[in-house]
Amino acid sequence: MKCSLPLQKGFIAILEKYRKPVDELILNFRSPDYSPEGGYRPVEIRLFGDTLDYVTEFAYFGLYPELEKSLDFDFGQGAGFQPFTGYSDIRRYGELFQLWQKNFIAYYRAGVYRVTS
């Protein structure tokens, strides 16, 4: 699996489990219990061939909560995103991406997600 930031073995194993022989694949990891009150945030991951193109996590924001991008690792564009700080070079997101992967692997192993493609 190719990516401009290091990938953890557990994360690669999850992606390989759902990978199909197609040029492009979008995987959606959703917790049925997620709501504006809390829970495990939904995640969308796009694979382009054997390359990780992006990982986007969503969260509810606002007075009248709407699901919006809360964290985005866009490897294809070389940019990372967080609310209130905006976009910056993906290389600045190395430590955060490592922490995010660790948490995602733990949540996945705990069975909190339903996965669709």
From TrEMBL:
Query: In terms of domain of life, where is this protein from?
Result: Bacteria
Q: Matching InterPro entries, A to Z?
A: DUF2787
Pfam families from the UniProt entry: DUF2787 (PF10980)
Q: Which PANTHER family match?
A: DUF2787 DOMAIN-CONTAINING PROTEIN (PTHR38978)
Q: What is the official name of this protein in its record? A: DUF2787 family protein
Q: Which species expresses this protein natively?
A: Serratia aquatilis
